[in-house]
């Protein structure tokens, strides 16, 4: 069933939240078009909406959080630099267990 075909009573029943990552991202991009311009803000809003981050950041501070995350060093940048450092200095490499988990994840294709 598509989101457009979903039926619910506006007064008594909220729509079901999207079930998978792709549907959740699509939902946010449709409902909040300003998120289309910043992956960082999209990630932040995703965490606030679907991952429970709203329990830790009060509603009146969430816009401030999204502005902050948009200007913060991106997680992918930090991840890439960590990988470079760990490759250059084996003493800083992750544990065998973490390495095995990363190797397994890297072969999984698109995560949904």
Summed over residues and divided by their number, the pLDDT gives a mean of 87
Helix content: 40-55%
Number of strands: 0
Number of spatially distinct domains: 2
Structural class designation:
mainly alpha
Biggest sheet character: none
Shape: extended
Rg from C-alpha positions?
A: 18 Å
Unreliable stretches (pLDDT < 50, length at least 5) are: 1-5
Order of helices and strands: HHHHH
Measure the end-to-end span. 18 Å
Beta content comes to under 5%
Summarize the structure in short.
The chain has helices at residues 21-31, 39-50, 62-71, 75-88, 96-106. It has 112 residues and is an all-alpha fold.
Characterise the protein shown here.
The structure is a single chain. This protein is mainly alpha-helical. It folds into 2 domains: 21-71, no CATH class; 75-106, no CATH class. 52% of the residues lie in helices and 0% in strands. The chain has 5 helices and no strands. α1 crosses α2. The protein is extended.
List keywords for this structure.
single chain; 112 residues; mainly alpha; 2 domains; 5 helices; disordered N terminus
Give the secondary structure arrangement, pairings included:
Elements: H1 21-31, H2 39-50, H3 62-71, H4 75-88, H5 96-106
